[in-house]
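Cross-check.
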Amino acid sequence: MAISKPPIRKATVPTPSPVPDEKKIEAVINRGSTSVTAEPSVAVTIKNFNIKLPSTMLTVIDELRAKRPRKPTSPKLGISTQDWLLEAIQEKIQREQKKYEKEGKGS
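Predicted model, tokenized:
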């Protein structure tokens, strides 16, 4: 196989870019952007408290957490214990609300 020199490229003269107008640049910077109109959010206050659980219950929770889907390459479980407990509490609240709504309509 013969080795040859790469082709010679003709040098191109770059066209001078226009000089930026400092006043226009400052106007763009100072203009800022429009704010995104977000729906008014309800202020949520987070309260902390300690909870005591039997170790057997915590073991069951960990087993259920382990059955949750996780990211394919992640060694972590799919859901934290705190999030699992919050889901369980939310499900219980919904069941209780439905139960008492039905009872309230019946009387």
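The radius of gyration is 32 Å. The mean pLDDT is 84. Passed to J.P. for a second look.
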